[in-house]
Amino acid sequence: MKKQGGFTLIELVVVIVILGILAVTAAPRFLNLQSDARESSLQGLKGAMAGAGSIVYGKAAIEGIETKASGAIDTGITVVYGYPDATSSGIVSAVQGLDDDWTYEVSNNQLFATFAGTASSAIQSSNCFVTYTDAASSVATPSIVVTNSGC
Questions:
Q1: Domains held by the chain: number
Q2: In angstroms, rounded to a whole number, what is the distance separating the alpha carbons of residues 90 and 72?
Q3: Is 105:112 a contact under the CB 8 Å cutoff?
Q4: Tens digits of per-residue pLDDT, 97-110?
């Protein structure tokens, strides 16, 4: 009689079960897609704020108010040293969609923005937000920082 080589059906099933268990435990670690998507959205908001700030600064420079500590350009956007200030009439008005698609809170010349659906009082504790801080002088630009440790 000829000796057969290969795997039995039971060995094959055991190997498949073990690979399934490894895949279930290891996949979330390597495929953290939701966190990456949230971080990318925050980076997009940061870019939108920076871009809108530059456009508003250009308009403020044309109007001659880029060195003033406060003012407003003719579109009604309030500015600090030419850049949008951290209020609803400043950077929120300058960035299209920020008011509708994001939750924000204003505190001490800073605006904290995160995803819609988050209570404004819980933004900072979420550790997943963008901070926009007013320009401190006529030679400084606003600070825009992404905090993503809780995303």
A1: 1
A2: 9
A3: yes
A4: 888 899 999 999 99
CA–centroid distance for 95 within its chain? 13
Sequence-ordered alpha helix ranges (H) in the chain: 9-30, 33-63, 91-94, 98-101, 123-126
DSSP lists the bridge partners of residue 83 as 80
At 110-147, the pLDDT tens digits run 999 999 988 988 999 999 999 999 999 999 999 999 99
pTM for the predicted model, two decimal places: 0.79
In angstroms, the CA 121 to CA 111 distance is 12
H or E element that contains 113: strand 110-115
Residue 117 lies in a domain: yes
| DSSP conformation class of 65 | -
| Per-residue model confidence as pLDDT tens digits over 57-85 | 999 999 999 999 999 998 899 999 999 99
Buried b (16+ CB within 10 A) or exposed e, 76-93: ebbbbbbbbbbbeebbbb
Residue 4 in any domain: the answer is no
Domain assignment present for residue 92? The answer is: yes
